[in-house]
Amino acid sequence: MGCASLPSAPTGSGDLGVVVERAQGSLKVINTTNRQMLGSIDGLGDLSHASVVYGRDGATAYVFGRDGALSKVNLLTRQIDVRVQQSGNSIGGAISQDGSLVAAQNYQPGGIKVFDAKTLALVADIPAEYAPGKLSRVVGLADLPGRRFVYSLFDAGEIWIADLGSPGSPNIAKITKFKDVGRQPYDALLTPNGRHYIAGLFGEDGLAMIDLWAAEPKVARILGGYGRGQQPLPVFKMPHLRGWAVAGRHAYLPAIGRHEVLVGDTENWTEVGRIKVAGQPVFVIARPDGRQVWVNFAVPDYNRVQVIDTQSRQIVKTLEPGRAVLHMEFTPRGEAVWISSRDDHRVSVIATDSFETQAVLSVDAPSGIFFSSRANRMGF
Amino acid sequence: MGCASLPSAPTGSGDLGVVVERAQGSLKVINTTNRQMLGSIDGLGDLSHASVVYGRDGATAYVFGRDGALSKVNLLTRQIDVRVQQSGNSIGGAISQDGSLVAAQNYQPGGIKVFDAKTLALVADIPAEYAPGKLSRVVGLADLPGRRFVYSLFDAGEIWIADLGSPGSPNIAKITKFKDVGRQPYDALLTPNGRHYIAGLFGEDGLAMIDLWAAEPKVARILGGYGRGQQPLPVFKMPHLRGWAVAGRHAYLPAIGRHEVLVGDTENWTEVGRIKVAGQPVFVIARPDGRQVWVNFAVPDYNRVQVIDTQSRQIVKTLEPGRAVLHMEFTPRGEAVWISSRDDHRVSVIATDSFETQAVLSVDAPSGIFFSSRANRMGF
Known about the structure:
Two copies of one chain form a homodimer.
Chain A: E1 16-21, E2 26-31, E3 36-41, E4 51-54, E5 60-64, E6 69-74, E7 79-85, E8 89-95, E9 101-108, E10 110-116, E11 122-127, E12 129-131, E13 134-135, E14 138-144, E15 148-153, E16 158-163, E17 174-178, E18 185-190, E19 196-201, E20 207-211, E21 219-222, E22 245-247, E23 250-254, E24 260-265, E25 270-276, E26 281-286, E27 292-297, E28 305-309, E29 314-319, E30 325-330, E31 336-341, E32 346-351, E33 357-362, E34 366-371
């Protein structure tokens, strides 16, 4: 990397981000202040369902490809620093609170692998072996304080916590296992404060929840009505749990198969309301201040985005930013949201107060959008 | 700025910060990943009671000096980009949600001045003229969504909101005034979600609060017992309101003059508890996840720091990191806290789980510590 390509006055990485071009195997690097594209990082393999986490400096990003590749990239040089083929089929990852470890959750072979965040050298290989010779697919991986990771075993109906110990200790993970959490946990989330880990169940209604701040954490079943219910509806796309919005004391959840967003009380985890929306919700995401919740939808309603005002619990706006809305990402202080429309090959930047479109960027089949401010958040 | 001083692989600004050296008129630039000092930014004038806000890129910082100077500095080049002498006596400032405007709150002449964040060109001069020819000192300035700023007029007993309009509009601020808010508001805070603006009153007990999300915001008086009370105690240092901790639905407030931290319920703003602490609290700050609240104290107890567990509301640790603890700043994900000890000329980095000291840095009479992650937060 030569000096010439650096700007004369170096600027920070706080307003940078990436947009996944799933068909190209590329990331577009963007700047949210100028609302411009800065360049591409290419050669990242199969980026369908790809996800990205950030190192503490905010310019280092880790890209988890569906093909099991893990790439460490630099948003400033737009280059791949290190790339390892770590499994045959992966579905995302997480970075430890101190930024020293990166973990990938794998379908094939089922388990997690933990890497040194600087070099991507393997630190720990933890197969999800729940019975002799039987490995489970792993989903819902999230970081916990103190170099720990929590995740769910789809095939086992278990939730595990791997503790990698202190930086100087031998890299032998201590595993805590929660068994019989419910059938087929398919995704999970950590609340923004890191207190509650909640797994969605594919095999039955309701959710499995662990209060990680309890003296002796254990699994509870919450929101028994959450799921497909007695008369299952066709589900065009399972909602993403990680998108769940916690706004004030309430959580906003995508109903499964129904055209509804559910409102739950995070103090007792009971349902307190339902809001009718334009389709089957996929992502339900709070603006950083929690005053609005934005929702996108599965086919055939995936050209729309709706905005819920959390004070009145009413839809205050319906937008049509383009065909096949796959993802939404708020700027750190919430003045704008970036929305990817895969089939119109564009990313729209929309002001969250006036709902005006501030910019439209041409991106090839954009899917996930990940801003560097994620470096500051836990459970991502 | 030559190329040679840049590292060969550029890194981001997400893990940078500054420590104010008040006697030197300098900032020390630090890195929270390596826990190292990177260099100095000198020539910043009188930095007693100085404060710092960050531009959206996280490498640009704005330094408000007590002498009325406003400096724009770059943490990567460690140089002053622009510096203006904007008033005779200033007490801090704020940056707009979109990062385009920087506002300074002034004692002399009383009012606020708003500057273009790139050039520091004056955009609006808004004297706090509350009666013909009478200017009030301004305190408690905070940014609100949409290029607005809220602040309190100490001499007038008023709270004003200045709306600078949209970026393209003429720079004529629209002012909304709240009168008779209480006697001598001396500092204020905005809750982390930007909903409640709360001003402390020097001239009477209780606090003035505005619910900014209300259809028609108005001033309410809350926590009538908050203040020096019927039998005023000697107050060695007025607590900083901006340090107030909101953890879950509860706010932790420094009592005035008493060796107590008050616990308030943010849903109805009533007092729900008091916690005995080692001295008169100055800063009461929540770890980012809200599970701990850290407290420092006025003389003669200012060699101590205490940690409150918010689940049990008990003191779980008392630390003595050095003489004259002036400030504490958490890393973005809360694994560590940086504490300045002015009279021992050091900054200590302490792990928030084990309470072990991870590093000690030599800094000349350190006071405020400001990390670049503040760029992502409102009300700072």
